[in-house]
Amino acid sequence: MRNSNKFFFIISLFFTLSLFSCSNKSEVQGKITYVSDNKVVVGDVAVELDGVSVATSKPLTGNFLIHNVAPGEHILKLKKNGFEELTQPLQIEKGKTLKLNFAMVPETKPVSHEGTNFILLNSQSRLLSTLNLKSGNWGQIVELEASPKEMAFDEDDHHLYLSLPEKNEIAVFDLNQMRLDHRIPLQETSKPTALALSRREDQLISVNDEKNTLICINLSRRQITSPCFNPDELKDPVTVIKNRDTGHFDILGKNAIYETSGTALISTYPLGRTYRRAHLVWLNSVRQYLIHSLVGNHFYLYDPQSKEKEQRLETEGEPIKVLAPLQNAKLYVLFADHLRQYNLYTKNWGPKIETGGSAAQDMVYDPHSRSFYILDSGRGLIVYQPESDKMETLALPLAKIGPDRFLVWG
């Protein structure tokens, strides 16, 4: 009985000391937003306390929580690529929760086009080349055997993948040598169109336009992966993208969006409309999909969390390209002669930003120069810098191949 009482006393003492220890600890709760709009949250921010990584802000809310912070003085740091580092001294009181709001400021380094290269394609004349923006030097001009439908760039090894429906193959070019590296032959009934590439998955996926199925190619082995996806589960694919947030593939079908991992189907999101020709964009800042229907040229927003029907986004004129590369919850929509911003939180359009041209064909965003580049058949290459809200035309001899599509190559 005496030993039993001794054991009970030790357990009680340990429990009491634990409660006392926890009551002396404090918490820090934080919310991180964009400096110019406190409704726009900034997720995936690395949070450090006294030089030690302790948390990451949540993508959907911008919130973070640090448990068991000792009383006293501390130094908090917030870090995220594309934003200025934020440092905040903290004074923590015993047993209390400190609640703070932070506003992240985008980096304002001088804009430089140095090191920016473009992959330029004339799909009608079947001409392919590269162009260095600073020097104005062209790479070798290559004439392709067939008109490419889509292209995907591998940033790791500088290889360009072109879908060639006429040849039933995917051609792979080494851009460092500007030559054909290898071909990936497909079945005679394969008409590859949309392309998406993921090094994380070691896979390239294309839509077979002839059979309404998917073609999966293992990048390391340079051969078709079989099976790809179960056609009874993943039906009528229209286009495919690599989700830059997850590194996996998202696939738009005629009546659903499919989220995948490897060759496995993770989630299916039924849609309220039928899409036959469309582009898909993942909006990381608001965790939604944007569907750009090429039939009627309409935009639709879909929230996979609520799983409600798509919301139509009204536009004036016919949009040519839409991008959402920044963490400011804005769409950048290109029209024939102007650019407009759409705020996904306020659901309002910004004023027209005149490009100075009248025949825009394509648009890309370069994170290194933090600029949008617009390809216009009349003006050539136009640059828009959102930080300074300036538009300028670059004097480059694009008529050399007359490109109608391009990619940025940092």
Task: Explain the layout of strands and helices.
Layout: H1 2-24, E1 26-34, E2 37-41, E3 46-49, E4 52-56, E5 63-69, E6 72-79, E7 86-92, E8 97-104, E9 117-122, E10 127-132, E11 142-143, E12 151-154, E13 159-164, E14 169-174, E15 179-185, E16 192-198, E17 203-208, E18 213-218, E19 223-224, E20 237-242, E21 249-253, E22 256-261, E23 264-270, E24 278-283, E25 288-293, E26 298-302, E27 311-313, E28 321-323, E29 330-334, E30 338-343, E31 348-349, E32 353-354, E33 360-366, E34 371-376, E35 380-385, E36 390-394, E37 405-409
Parallel strand pairs: 1-8
Antiparallel strand pairs: 1-2, 1-5, 3-4, 3-6, 6-7, 9-10, 9-37, 10-11, 12-13, 13-14, 14-15, 16-17, 17-18, 18-19, 20-21, 21-22, 22-23, 24-25, 25-26, 26-27, 28-29, 29-30, 30-31, 30-32, 33-34, 34-35, 35-36
Description:
With 410 residues, this protein is mainly beta. It has two domains: 23-104, Immunoglobulin-like; 117-409, Methylamine Dehydrogenase, Chain H. It has one helix spanning 2-24; strands at 26-34, 37-41, 46-49, 52-56, 63-69, 72-79, 86-92, 97-104, 117-122, 127-132, 142-143, 151-154, 159-164, 169-174, 179-185, 192-198, 203-208, 213-218, 223-224, 237-242, 249-253, 256-261, 264-270, 278-283, 288-293, 298-302, 311-313, 321-323, 330-334, 338-343, 348-349, 353-354, 360-366, 371-376, 380-385, 390-394, 405-409. The strands form nine sheets. Strands 28, 29, 30, 31 and 32 form a five-stranded antiparallel β-sheet that branches. The longest helix is centred in the N-terminal third of the chain and has 23 residues, at 2-24. Mean pLDDT is 85; it is low at 1-22.
